[in-house]
Automatic annotation (TrEMBL):
It holds the Pfam family Phage_holin_4_2. Signal peptide: none annotated. This is Phage holin family protein. The keyword Plastid does not apply. Keywords: Membrane, Transmembrane, Transmembrane helix. The chain crosses the membrane at residues 39-59, 66-89, 101-123. InterPro entries: Phage_holin_4_2.
Length: 128
């Protein structure tokens, strides 16, 4: 249940990111179909979650000294590269995320993480 909630939160944050960042777009697999658009956002969020969990974790462990040297600013670069990787993976299946360049990916990853964090605070279940 938590995993599904995280995917939905990521998909909603991705939708908000595509509204704000011009260089980040999501192309649905069927034009003019609301259900196809929602499924596409959910699939891209699932791909992003898997890439972030598997490859992102490995990169963060290997690049730990760079994180320390740059006081965490290297995280922006890593997140942008992970967003470009999701763009490439979704491009292989023919629909999904499209990022126009590296700096759009870095900016888009920053906005996406900001929205994911804010929405996560709102929907987080309380521990009473």
């Amino acid at each position: 249940m938590r995993f599904l909630l995280k995917v939905i939160v990521s998909a909603f944050a991705l939708w908000l990111t595509t509204l704000i960042v011009d260089g980040v777009n999501v192309v649905p697999w069927a034009a003019d179909d609301t259900a196809a658009t929602i499924v596409t956002y959910l699939m891209v969020a699932l791909i992003f979650g898997l890439v972030n969990a598997v490859i992102g974790t490995v990169i963060r462990i290997v690049a730990f000294p760079l994180y320390i040297l740059t006081l965490g600013l290297f995280a922006f670069i890593v997140n942008g590269l992970l967003l470009l990787l999701v763009d490439w993976i979704s491009g292989l299946i023919g629909f999904g995320l499209e990022v126009e360049g590296f700096w759009w990916a870095v900016f888009g990853a920053f906005i996406l993480s900001l929205f994911t964090w804010l929405i996560g605070i709102i929907v987080r279940p309380s521990r009473d």
